[in-house]
Amino acid sequence: MGGDNFLISKICNFLSALILLFIIFFTGTILTLQLLGYKPMSVLSGSMAPKYQVGDLVFINTNAPIDDISIGGVVTYQSSAESVITHRVVSIDEAKRAFRTKGDANEIEDLSDVSFDQFVGVPFIHIPKAGDILMNLTSPKYIGIGLIFLAVIITLFIVPVLLAPESNQASNPNGKSANLMPQDTREKGMREEQRQP
After folding, report:
1. Cα angle, residue 85 at apex, residues 84 and 87 outer, rounded to 5°
2. How far apart are CA 32 and CA 10, in angstroms?
């Protein structure tokens, strides 16, 4: 039984450590990139498929200078107060300080030119399906799941403590187990030693 408890304890410790490492790595990566000027955005449409699929997480380099944008490059721009689009540049009008874009999966170009002032940045890296995870973490629908997830982690830490074997033997100051015996038996043994010549 003790061996089973020890194995369960080891498994719980391993799983809890693995989960925490994943959370620390995922959160740390996003926060670090944001501090460096890379803004995470979730892909909501398939207009740039197959390069970017719905649910992918794309980090936009907001430090990229617009002068580096060229025909064939992919840019992210603010199309409205609440809408941000990532499409490929198909033409540039330096005189108007604007460019025209098109989604890779779209048959026609976007209807209006994009002003240089609307430029947000250029895609740096993307993580497939990580956008869905990020959006779900901030969705009220998944708050309950997050609380359950937290409870599981706490449980994985507590279970090894509850299953830890308890020592029923007394130890002397030198760390060796002391032999315990009833008081009357010990006294009887002392009397027999005194009667020996």
Report:
1. 160
2. 32
pTM of the model: 0.60
CB 76 within 8 A of CB 85: yes
Amino acid at 165: P
Quote the DSSP letter at residue 99. E
| Structural contact between residues 119 and 62, judged by C-beta atoms closer than 8 angstroms | no
With contact defined as beta carbons under 8 Å apart, do 159 and 106 qualify? no
HEC letters along 124-169: EEEECCHHHHHHHHCCHHHHHHHHHHHHHHHHHHHHHHHHCCCCCC
Task: Of 63, 60, 55, 122, give the one whose Cα is nearest residue 88.
Answer: 122
- C-beta of residue 104 within 8 angstroms of C-beta of residue 76: no
User: Domains of the chain (ranges plus CATH)?
Assistant: 1-36+138-162 (no CATH), 38-128 (2.10.109.10)
* Chain centroid, CA 131 distance in Å: 12
The model's pLDDT over 139-189, given as tens digits with 9 standing for 90+, comes to: 666 666 667 777 776 776 676 666 665 544 444 445 444 444 455 554 554
Give the tokens for residue 134: 């990020």
Could you give phi then psi for residue 53, rounded to 5 degrees? -100, 160
- CA 87 from chain center: how many Å? 28
What does the alpha-carbon distance between residue 81 and residue 62 come to, in Å, rounded to a whole number? 17
